[in-house]
Amino acid sequence: MTAPVSVPVATLGRRLVGLAVDWALASAISAGFLGYEPMATLAVFALMTWLMVATLGATIGHVVAGLAVRTPAGGLPGPVRALARTVGLCLVIPAVVWGPDGRGLHDVWAGTVVTRVR
To answer: Where is the chain membrane-spanning (predicted)?
Structure first.
């Protein structure tokens, strides 16, 4: 059983914009340092996502799209929740399976929610 979500869940469109921005940045970083290598891009994406969500509660893509990652009560996720969320996101399937509350399985696993902040 998961905790009830007290913050508004972001729309799918905004989440996809944020994801696209983050993936483009990770691609540019990995291409600049390592050439085109898909697994390197995934590693850069994962590290960037985990560090930023753990410390700031949002990635660069989230900020661009006006989103933030929070706990259902509205707090910052912290490093453990951010790691669980990032692993689920990088596995892809949990990120594309979501429930009636609009949260992806990776967010349910981590106990987080992507919310609109502007």
So the answer is: 16-36, 42-70
Q: Is 7 part of any domain?
A: no
- Structural domain span for residue 99: 12-116
Residue 4 lies in a domain: no
In a domain, 2, yes or no: no
Please tell me the total count of domains within the chain: 1
Burial zone of 51 (CB within 10 Å; 0-12 exposed, 13-18 middle, 19+ buried): middle
pLDDT of residue 5: 64
Chain segment 17-50, per-residue pLDDT in tens: 999 999 999 999 999 998 888 999 999 999 999 9
Q: Which amino acid is located at 74 in the chain?
A: G
Instruction: Give residues with Cβ within 8 angstroms of 76, minimum separation 6.
Output: 57, 70
Enter the DSSP assignment of 61.
Answer: H
